[in-house]
């Protein structure tokens, strides 16, 4: 008797077994299991578990539902029931054949909210003993209020019901609440580990020190420095979550990470290592993120496994010229213990796992990471960078956790070797931009206007994914809203806007003086520019008063707001300054290069060839405050531009390109002789063109019969961005039209919306169509929209793993349909659902030369497959169709089969891992029977049984063209000879 019949026949007995005790526990445990296995949807669960309704009624609802869901669900239900009921009760029921392995559910959850579901049974049991702790964690993190807690703690609830109620509430609060609970449970589980603080009794002086350190960390981190001067903004008010992802592929982690995951176990690649790297481009929010960690720790709201947190800024460590021991480094640079230094330090040494160091901006350290100088003694003195490198490697103070931030360019393989894991910070998501703008402006109408204006200018919207640019745009909202649609396109445009904003802020009465604003402040700009320029050349980001005096910077210049006083935890009292952000320093350096009549003529040329920096004036002048001892000075000047310097030089070069663009030239008209300006423009254009040629020359000749392919070198995207900043189509045309390749590969190149804008701007001038491969970047929907201008030169577009949703696809396909060359698209591992399939269907109907559609690893169900089938029915060109890892099931397979059974073009079809059973397989057999073109069909990892396989075999008898049908991992029992079957035409004779 099948499971469905068993459920029906034993209805009364099952109801009795579930409800007769009067306790809802059995029913709820069954529900937990069915939810975990996806047999019940959340909506189903809510329909069954109606508060206040009789237990029997709820159970009846469940029985009705599992029955209507069919045999599989009934089988799961009976297996769950058997597992939940006490043996003597279960014995009265027949479960014949229902013995699914409920433990072995494949982990495919992509979010913490899903984990809450898939692990629900075990979470319910784990939470029972620690409801209060979990509630506290949720309150501290701001997800629960006292009303939520009271509901969970209702006295009528049993402990397991409290746990379920807590999980249900957490689900309604969203992903970050789910993360908090999972993290809490994880920590609870590790309570046997050295992280368990309860067992520790730190000495009294240590506790005093802890208090002093945390109040000092709290004071340092509660405000954001970009809102210095007049407009203080607390981090709590403005902090907006950025997109954090693991930098490396990790099978069981998909989707975004939370702050706590940085030091959590998720994504660990080396258990041995204690250093976590947070990498991200300049302005992506790394410093703000560590500042947030500091604040949460100091406030007791996160990272509470760590008793002490020592925050370091690498740019400030640059000024430490003395040799120090670790003890001196900690106490002098972070917080001085009033008493018992030795005892406190000994406690730190004895409990390294309870200590966290953060090193912000490793890329700003003068020295590149090296593991040559080994040091293991914590009392031995050494130059600070040697201490730092040894701490990171773990040769010094092994076991102390380190969180290091850096730009990705500055992280070489030598450092990667010592990492526990790497997480990438990708700036704001589209909803993050929204959230940030709303937080920035207390007046909701202003926020709404800014957001509206961003929607009409997607190039600018793309820029706003970078938090620093989002900050500028919000800061300059008056200029933004007053400057007319679409006038802000480039990064330089945005920085010119903030330049104007800050300068005019000082003379508001003259705000209508047209282009004269720069002329009026030219001297200030040049003085700050000189400071910035020379700092960039010497890896100097913190300036002493003497440095400022050397450039003639006055108090009035400082008041403009571009320089802020450097926060320093160390005890030195002399004032130091830094630019609002490193990109601001690069911008001023670029202004200096463009506007100054004093710079070395070759400076611009050399800026575009960073390896030659040491020969230019750029590295020849140094400042007292930022230079270490004379020896190290020799080292810095003698070496090539370090990995750390190059990104800043490149940003500066990008700004130089933008400042010299036609659109900004009017601004400089009265500030600089025009002949000199023309010369600089020519220099830059030549540099860009030469740089591109160098790339093209490096393309190897293709092997006979293969396409000519270019894999972008690291600087390629940077050059493209510089060309975009110049906003001159002639330069773009000249630079790219000589590129003759069939395939342009830009995988893993950190391409986000901004890069897409620049790429499309330049690639649109390619002479011949190319395959554009952008797999494994962060293109997103905004990036997709930015790519549209170059769609006409793309014959194939590869956008695997790029965070694209249905909305991005809608725009992409609307454009693609109009592009004659567009023939292939690959969108594996994005965020597509059934909502996008109508667009593909339209594409297939409309474009009768479309060849390949690959949509693997998305969220397409039977409904989506039916939509696709609509298009396929009218298509006479498609050769490759890939739907691996979706959920089309039998119904989807049947729809596709019916649409494709007369296809004369389909060569390859993949439905791997789609829950296709024998019904689907026998429908697909029709394609095999009739097709004159099909060569390969992939059906691995489905649930096809012997019946389905037999249909496929029979169909093969009628077909001479099919070469292989892949069937591994289907529902063929061990005894059957068809297990692990690959049907290959040539071996047909060996089949049973
Ligand atoms: P990075 O260290 O990567 O160069 P920062 O953290 O200095 O970037 O960010 C630059 C500016 O962008 C900050 O000063 C702040 O104004 C804004 N910003 C960055 N991240 C966030 C965030 N998560 N929430 C709010 N503002 C942010």
UniProtKB/TrEMBL annotation:
Keywords: ATP-binding, Cell membrane, Cytoplasm, Immunity, Innate immunity, Leucine-rich repeat, Lipoprotein, Membrane, Nucleotide-binding, Palmitate, Repeat, Ubl conjugation. SMART domains: LRR_RI (SM00368). It is found in: Basolateral cell membrane; Cell membrane; Cytoplasm. GO terms for molecular function: ATP binding. InterPro entries: CARD, DEATH-like_dom_sf, Leu-rich_rpt, LRR_dom_sf, NACHT_NTPase, NLR, NLRP_HD2, NOD1/2_WH. Its main location: membrane. One of its GO terms (cellular component) is basolateral plasma membrane. PANTHER family: NACHT, LRR AND CARD DOMAINS-CONTAINING. This is Nucleotide-binding oligomerization domain-containing protein 2. It comes from Lates japonicus.
């Amino acid at each position: 008797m099948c499971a469905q019949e068993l459920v029906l026949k034993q209805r009364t007995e099952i109801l009795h077994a579930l409800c007769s005790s009067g306790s809802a526990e059995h029913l709820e445990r069954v529900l937990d299991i069915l939810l975990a296995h996806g047999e019940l949807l959340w909506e189903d669960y809510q329909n069954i578990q109606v508060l206040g309704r009789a237990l029997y009624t709820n159970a009846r609802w469940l029985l009705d539902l599992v029955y209507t869901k069919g045999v599989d669900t009934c089988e799961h239900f009976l297996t769950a029931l058997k597992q939940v009921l006490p043996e003597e009760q279960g014995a009265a029921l027949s479960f014949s054949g229902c013995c699914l392995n409920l433990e072995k559910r494949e982990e495919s959850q992509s979010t913490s909210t899903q984990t809450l579901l898939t692990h629900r049974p075990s979470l319910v049991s784990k939470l029972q003993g620690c409801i209060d702790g979990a509630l506290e964690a949720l309150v501290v993190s701001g997800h629960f209020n006292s009303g939520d807690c009271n509901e969970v703690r209702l006295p009528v609830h049993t402990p397991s019901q409290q746990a379920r109620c807590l999980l249900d509430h957490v689900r309604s609060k969203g992903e970050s609440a789910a993360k908090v609970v999972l993290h809490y449970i994880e920590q609870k589980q590790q309570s046997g580990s050295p992280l368990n603080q309860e067992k520790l009794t730190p000495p009294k002086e240590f506790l005093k020190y802890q208090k002093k350190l945390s109040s000092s960390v709290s004071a340092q981190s509660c405000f954001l420095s970009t809102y210095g001067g007049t407009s203080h903004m607390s981090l709590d008010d403005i902090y907006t979550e950025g997109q954090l992802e693991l930098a490396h592929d990790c099978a069981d982690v998909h989707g975004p990470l939370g702050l706590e995951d940085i030091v959590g176990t998720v994504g660990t690649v080396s258990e041995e290592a204690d250093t976590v790297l947070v990498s991200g481009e300049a302005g992506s929010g790394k410093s703000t993120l560590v500042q947030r960690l500091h604040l949460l720790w100091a406030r007791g709201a996160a990272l509470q496994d760590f008793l002490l947190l020592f925050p370091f800024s690498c740019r400030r460590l640059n000024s430490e010229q003395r040799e120090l021991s670790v003890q001196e480094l900690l106490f002098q640079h972070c917080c001085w213990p009033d008493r018992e230094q030795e005892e406190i330090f000994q406690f730190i040494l004895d409990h390294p796992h309870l200590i966290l160091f953060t090193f912000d901006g490793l890329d700003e350290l003068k020295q590149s990471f090296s593991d040559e100088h080994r040091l293991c003694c914590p009392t031995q003195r050494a130059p600070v960078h040697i201490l730092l490198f040894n701490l990171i490697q773990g040769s010094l103070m092994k076991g102390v956790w380190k969180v290091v931030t850096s730009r990705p360019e500055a992280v070489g393989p030598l450092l990667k070797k010592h990492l526990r894991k790497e997480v990438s910070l990708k700036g704001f998501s589209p909803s993050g931009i929204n959230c940030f703008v709303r937080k920035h402006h207390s007046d909701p109408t202003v926020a709404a206007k800014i957001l509206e204006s961003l929607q009409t200018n997607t190039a600018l919207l793309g820029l706003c994914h970078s938090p620093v640019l989002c900050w500028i745009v919000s800061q300059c909202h008056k200029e933004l809203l007053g400057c007319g649609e679409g006038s802000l396109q480039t990064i330089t445009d945005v920085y010119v806007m903030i330049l104007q904003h800050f300068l005019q802020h000082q003379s508001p009465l003259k705000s209508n003086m047209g282009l004269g604003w720069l002329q009026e402040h030219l001297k200030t700009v040049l003085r700050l520019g000189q400071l910035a320029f020379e700092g960039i050349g010497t890896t100097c980001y913190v300036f002493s008063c003497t440095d400022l005096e050397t450039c003639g910077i006055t108090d009035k210049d400082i008041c403009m707001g571009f320089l802020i006083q450097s926060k320093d935890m160390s005890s030195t009292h002399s004032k130091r300054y830094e630019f609002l952000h490193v990109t601001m320093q690069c911008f001023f350096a670029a202004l200096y290069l463009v506007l100054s009549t004093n710079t070395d003529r070759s400076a611009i040329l050399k800026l575009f060839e960073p390896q030659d920096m040491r020969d230019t004036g750029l590295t020849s002048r140094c400042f007292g405050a930022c230079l270490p001892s004379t020896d190290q000075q020799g080292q810095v000047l003698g070496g090539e531009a370090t990995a750390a310097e190059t990104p800043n030089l490149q940003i500066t070069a990008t700004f130089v390109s933008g400042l010299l663009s036609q659109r900004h030239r009017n601004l400089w008209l009265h500030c600089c002789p025009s002949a000199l300006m023309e010369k600089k423009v020519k220099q830059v254009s030549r540099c860009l063109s030469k740089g591109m040629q160098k790339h093209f020359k490096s393309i190897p000749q293709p092997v006979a019969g293969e396409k000519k392919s270019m894999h972008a070198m690291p600087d390629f995207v940077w050059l493209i961005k510089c060309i975009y900043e110049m906003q001159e189509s002639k330069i773009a045309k000249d630079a790219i039209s000589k590129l003759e390749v069939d395939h342009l590969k830009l995988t893993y190149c950190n391409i986000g919306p901004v890069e897409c804008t620049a790429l499309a701007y330049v690639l649109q001038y390619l002479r011949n169509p190319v395959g554009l491969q952008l797999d494994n970047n962060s293109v997103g929907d905004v990036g997709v929209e930015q790519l549209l201008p170059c769609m006409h030169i793309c014959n194939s577009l590869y956008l695997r793993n790029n965070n694209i949703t249905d909305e991005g696809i809608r725009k992409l396909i609307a454009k693609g349909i109009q592009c004659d060359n567009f023939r292939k698209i690959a969108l594996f591992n994005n965020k597509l659902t059934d909502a996008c399939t109508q667009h593909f269907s339209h594409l297939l109907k409309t474009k009768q030369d479309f060849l390949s559609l690959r949509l693997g690893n998305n969220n397409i169900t039977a409904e989506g497959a039916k939509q696709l089938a609509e298009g396929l029915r009218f298509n006479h060109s498609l050769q490759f169709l890939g739907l691996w890892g979706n959920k089309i099931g039998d119904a989807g397979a049947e729809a596709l089969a019916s649409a494709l059974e007369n296809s004369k073009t389909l060569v390859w079809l993949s439905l791997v891992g789609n829950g296709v059973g024998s019904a689907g397989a026998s429908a697909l057999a029709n394609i095999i029977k009739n097709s004159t073109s099909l060569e390969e069909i992939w059906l691995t990892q489905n649930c096809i049984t012997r019946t389905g396989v037999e249909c496929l075999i029979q169909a093969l008898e009628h077909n001479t063209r099919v070469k292989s049908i892949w069937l591994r991992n289907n529902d063929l029992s061990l005894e059957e000879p068809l297990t692990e079957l690959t049907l290959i035409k040539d071996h047909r004779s060996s089949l049973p």
